[in-house]
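Consider the tokenized backbone below.
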């Protein structure tokens, strides 16, 4: 029970942190990418841990709940950014500058997350039910190999196409896929942190 709570909380936290960080485009290891890519790739393996604990149907519910929480978070940031600050405190422009949502990026993040995480769930479920319950590392690799390019393509096209040069959008897509693939390999041992739901 405690482990289940921890992995669910970690999944929602990683989703929220990546959505906030996605508001900034950074250069990392010479690659242009949204800063959410530093956190978001871990959600795929954390999602696999959740799947092991609560099964596919519970995982699908969690994906939707995380999306709703992220939408509420963005709405709250939008509201707070527009409410007048207390003049006795002085200017408080930093909040609006840093956290006021860019709705196109927020919507892109949530759509990409939901679709990619559902795909990841179904590929993972297919492996467990149709192939084998063994080789947990392989189910992580396969589910991530399918869902990561979908996630990156959806996010980049919805968030940036038409607002940035195509070369920059393509570079963000490639960097997202590369970073997410590296994180997949690094996080594979994490799949063994929780026991399989029987």
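A designed sequence for it:
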């Amino acid at each position: 029970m405690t482990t289940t709570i921890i992995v669910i909380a970690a999944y929602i936290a990683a989703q929220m942190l990546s959505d906030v960080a996605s508001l900034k485009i950074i250069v990392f290891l010479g690659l242009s990418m949204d800063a959410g890519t530093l956190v978001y790739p871990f959600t795929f393996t954390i999602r696999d841990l959740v799947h092991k604990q609560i099964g596919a149907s519970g995982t699908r519910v969690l994906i939707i709940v995380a999306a709703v929480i992220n939408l509420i978070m963005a709405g709250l940031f939008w509201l707070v950014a527009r409410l007048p600050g207390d003049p006795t405190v002085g200017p408080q422009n930093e909040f609006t500058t840093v956290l006021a949502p860019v709705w196109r990026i927020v919507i892109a993040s949530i759509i990409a997350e939901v679709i990619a995480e559902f795909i990841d769930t179904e590929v993972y479920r297919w492996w467990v039910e149709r192939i084998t319950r063994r080789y947990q590392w392989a189910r992580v690799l396969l589910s991530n190999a399918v869902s990561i390019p979908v996630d990156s393509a959806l996010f980049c096209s919805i968030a940036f196409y038409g607002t940035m040069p195509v070369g920059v959008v393509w570079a963000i897509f490639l960097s997202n896929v590369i970073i997410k693939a590296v994180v997949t390999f690094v996080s594979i041992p994490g799949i063994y942190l929780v026991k399989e739901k029987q």
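The chain has a mean pLDDT of 89.
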